[in-house]
Every structure is written in C-alpha cells, then in structure tokens.
Amino acid sequence: MDKPTVMHPGVKLRHIRAFLEIAAEGGLSSVARAQGISQPALSRTLAELEDLLGQPLFLRQKRRLVLTEGGRLFRRHAALALESLEAGAAALRPGTSGSLRIGVLPTAATRMVPAVMLRFREMRPEILLRVETGPHHHLIRLLRDGGIDLMVGRLPDVSEMPGLSFEHLYEEDVLLVGRRDHPMEARTVTEALKASVLILPPETALIRRPVNDYLASLGLVGIQPAVETVSLAVGRGICLASDALWFISRGVVAEELERGMLIEFQLGARFMSGAVGITRRQSASAPGLAAFEEIARQLAPGMPEAKAG
C-alpha cells in the first residue's frame, strides 16, 4: 500500500533552494542577482512554494523578510533534506564530499562540541571536520572573513552581530572555582577573593565584563589578577597546584567539578550567566552545516546549564 504524501508533489528543488537563499539573505534582491533572474520571478517562485505548503513562510518587516514560525521550522528540515541530497550526489563522485570548518570557544570545547562531532561523524562520515580554536575576537574575524563556517560559544556582543546570526542552545553560568579542600572554602566569597591568588578571563573574553561587574558589586574594583586565561589546561593546572581561585564558564570545568578535582564557590549572582549557541554568517552554506546545527540542538539540553546561586 502506497504511503500517503504529505508534501504537495508540485514542490520542486528550485523552490527549496530559492527559499533557503532568501531565508539566509533576508531579502529578494541579492538572491535574484545571484541567480541571474528578475526579482518578480523570484517572488513568484516564493509565492508558489507558500501556496503549495499552504501557509506563509515570511513576514515583511521594513525592508527585510523575516521567517514566520512555520518558516523557521520548514527551513530546518529543508536544509537537512538538501544536504542529504547533496551528500547522495557526492557519494557518487569520490573526492567531492568537502569539509566543515568550525570555530570553538573554550566554553564549548570540552564537552559540547566533542559530543556533537562524534554524533556528526556517525551521520556524515564523508565530511571532514576542521576545528579552529582561539579567543573570541580571533574566531569572529575568521567567521567574517570566511575562514570558518560557524562558531560555537557565547553570544557575541551586539556590535559584532551585523551580517551574522546567532542560534541559542542553552544558558551557562560563570563560576568561581578552586581546588578541593581549599582553605577558604568556608569563608565568604569576598574574604576568599581578597586572600587568594586570582585568575580572571582576559579583557577580550566575553565573560570578563560580567566578572568585572561582579567584583565591583563586592567593592573589589581594584583587585588585580595574577593570571588571565580561559585555557582549561593552564587554569586547572594552577588551581590544582595552589590556592588560586579562577572565574571561568561552567562548560570549561564541568568534568573537573563532577570528578571533585575542583569545587565551586557560591556567588549568588544571577547575572553571571549567558547564552551559548551557534554563530554564523547569515548567508553561510557548507557541507554538513545544517546537520551539525541539528545535532547541536538535540544535544544542547544535556549540557551544563546555568544555576541560580
């Protein structure tokens, strides 16, 4: 017995490609120029797709086209479907599978991205994953210049977002950690900070501003760190070998906390949390990009989430 078809048989590949490109660019004119067709012709293609699907996919806001809720849902599945078709075509032509270039910030480097990459490998073994690590400003520059296809980490500053899009995956807090059996464990945070060697994120790190605000709230504006780093290897090494205290994102030290190697000092500051997700160029297109994003969405609920102090 034939399985009933949900999607109208009139939906063609040209409709899907046009829809995805319009969604990426947020408008018709640049897509029409890239495809070498008139804007009215592209508009008709979009209207055909909306008629065939039975609902609008975009809302017009000033000069931009913004996806409706249905449009966002359809975009996710359409992107995965198109990638699957392209993967099938690539499988018939060895050597054309390509690679996906990923920028990874420290907060997602120890648990989030490795988990996504392992799942991705099972689904798309023909695609090479190229990973670039480094500070936020370095990865943002690579993203804008086309050196990487996406970046996984904290939400960039609003001034950095023009031309980029961010998809929220989960919330994560900034912690103050030290070694197990730390001599200041039973003291107040203010007393512990005054009496201990301090490790802070670099001034260029996204989490440095909330850390500075927290220190100011305790009247510790002039307190000086001995080291500035978000490196797990460096920060962990110093903490385990001394009585140093380190402000760092939960995702960086989640495993050390679970194993009891490091302990968390309760800060009691709700504003010390922030969004972690995927940042990419609005017009980005790369082999496996949609599949990587979908896997990240599926695994995000299992990541270390923000906790109220």
Keywords summarizing the entry:
single chain; 309 residues; alpha/beta; Arc Repressor Mutant, subunit A; D-Maltodextrin-Binding Protein, domain 2; 9-stranded mixed beta sheet; two-stranded antiparallel ribbon
At a glance:
The protein is α/β, with parallel strands linked by helices and 309 residues long.
Structure description:
There is one protein chain. By secondary structure, this protein is an alpha/beta fold. The chain has three domains: 13-80, Arc Repressor Mutant, subunit A (Orthogonal Bundle); 98-169 and 275-302, Periplasmic binding protein-like II (D-Maltodextrin-Binding Protein, domain 2), CATH 3.40.190; 172-273, D-Maltodextrin-Binding Protein, domain 2, CATH 3.40.190.10. 42% of the residues lie in helices and 21% in strands. It has helices at residues 13-25, 29-35, 39-53, 69-91, 106-109, 112-123, 136-145, 189-195, 208-217, 232-240, 250-259, 289-299, and strands spanning 58-61, 64-67, 99-104, 128-133, 150-154, 164-179, 198-200, 227-228, 245-249, 262-265, 273-281. The strands form two sheets. Strands 3, 4, 5, 6, 7, 8, 9, 10 and 11 form a nine-stranded mixed sheet that branches. A two-stranded antiparallel ribbon has the order 1-2. Strand 1 and strand 2 (64-67) form a beta hairpin. The chain is elongated. The N and C termini lie far apart (58 Å).
